[in-house]
Structures are given as C-alpha cells and as structure tokens.
Amino acid sequence: MDAWVWTVPKEHSKGGEKIVRPVPDAMRKFIEILHDETKRSGLLLGSVKGSEAVSQWGRGVYKKLGHSEPWTLHDLRRTLATHMNNMGIAPHVVEQLLGHSMPGVMAIYNRSLYLPEKLDALNKWYDRLDILSGGFTNIVLLNRAE
C-alpha cells in the first residue's frame, strides 16, 4: 500500500483491461485498519466472490438499508458519474474511474492513467459526500441554477 493505488487486474474487469485507481487521502487510515485486521487472509474486504454473487447481493442491498424505493449498484455508478461531471470533473477522468475504455483513436494513442486527476476527483467526491452526510454547521448547500 506504499503507492496507495488500487489495481483491478484485467481478468477481473468487465472490459478486459487493467483498472488503476488511486486511494483517496481520507480513506487511507480506514484501509490501514482493514489491512491490519485482514492481512492473514490476503484480502482486504472479505472473500473472493464471482461477479454474479456481487450482483445478486447488490440487487437487495436497498432492502437491507431499509429503503422502500429499489435501487442497484449500477445506480450508484450512474450517480457517481453524473455528480462528478456536475462537479466539473473531466469526463475522461470519470470514465476511467468507472473502468470504461477511452473511445476511438484516444484508446490507441493516449495511455495515460491520469492518476493525479483521479486522486483529485476522488478526494473531491469524498469531500462532497462528507458535506452531504451532515454535521457541518458552517456550510449551506445551494441548488445549482438550471
């Protein structure tokens, strides 16, 4: 964890390409604690599961959280993409965070991992979620003009 980069090997990605994401600053202490608790297993979060098991679990998570309106893990991805773009994060950075390939000729010539840009985006996303979770008396959320 010295580099604070999370890599999804190509054999575990839907598109067959390796996905590289930096770990947001605020998450590092939490991950260090998880790592200390799970280092015997070699896994950070539980056990290895097939994509079907994760999808199945994701279909019912809204019920486990006591939500009456159904939603899926894909809805969380869509929410992340929409809000990051609304926050001014460059679309190609958002797409890489989602594990999507670059379109067309870009995919051939541009091999950048955009790690600094991804880290900045994830730090901003964490800060946004932190604000939305409440507990701040000196921050007022304003609706964006349309």
Major beta sheet summary? 2 strands, antiparallel
Structural class call reads mainly alpha
Residue-averaged pLDDT: 89
Helix amount, in percent? 40-55%
Walk across the major sheet and give the strand order. Answer: 1-2
Weakly predicted, low-confidence segments: none
E-strand count: 2
Helix segment count? 6
Backbone CA Rg: 17 Å
- SSE arrangement, N to C: EEHHHHHH
Strand residue content: 5-15%
Which shape, going by the Cα principal axes?
A: globular
Distance between the first and last residues' Cα: 42 Å
Overview of this protein structure:
It is a single chain. With 146 residues, the protein is mainly alpha-helical. The protein has six helices and two strands. It has a domain at 5-43 and 70-132. It holds the Pfam family Phage_integrase. This is Integrase family protein. GO terms for molecular function: DNA binding.
Record keyword descriptors for this entry.
single chain; 146 residues; mainly alpha; two-stranded antiparallel sheet; 6 helices; 48% helix; globular
Quick structural overview:
This protein is mostly helical and 146 residues long. It contains six helices and two strands.
Topology at a glance:
Blueprint: E1 5-8, E2 19-22, H1 28-38, H2 51-64, H3 73-86, H4 91-97, H5 104-109, H6 115-132
Antiparallel strand pairs: 1-2
